[in-house]
Amino acid sequence: MAGFSWYLSEGFQVIIEKSKEAKCSLKDVQLRFLCPDDLEEVRSLCRDWFPIEYPQSWYEDITSSERFFALAAVHKSQIIGLIVAEIKPYLKLNAEDRGILSRWFASKDTLVAYILSLGVVRSYRRSGVATMLLDVLINHLAGPVSQPPHEHRVKAIFLHVLTTNNEAILFYEKRRFRLHSFLPYYYSINGRCKDGFTYVYYVNGGHAPWGLYDYVKHVARIAWRGGGLYPWLWGKLRTALTIAWHR
Fold it and tell me: Is 114 a catalytic residue?
């Protein structure tokens, strides 16, 4: 992608805040995957960004396990932003998240991506770093070139966000994430329960459960693509009459 360099190394969302001037240009930002040597730096950043304390095992996992898409934005050898998403089977989702996809995708081959964290150092916010990280994740999972081992099997990218985190909500809505559900008392922060939202971005043909209107629209679209609605209906009726006649 133009605008930055790329190189590889062996459930809260960022609060986007206004900054009077960007501290760097995106062309000076490098992207790389996290590695075990980043653990202490990442832990320090997360403690500054997020209102909860992640366990040691979480930091070990995101800096070493292939189960996670853990990407860092680096400027002058320092991590200034990161995105962490877990790629996992749809059938292993918690009950409150199963409804993000239509039941037609209830297969062992269907995968989803859960954005665990997206954060940017305060002085670098509003400079496009968060958007760049999110775009790379989406392109990796749903770009024109199939990327192993997922190979376009990811049908939805979703996240949870505090209902009071208006800046993060606006950030995702501007990037076409759709509000899916309200989660009462989903978070526990400093001993107090907080409500959350689920937001979803559909990729690779994935979609939410359909209602009657969606099915009608889908059938009509197929019919028109085949030469028009009436020829399609007549063809279906003729087939039904033929079957009935020969019985």
Answer: yes
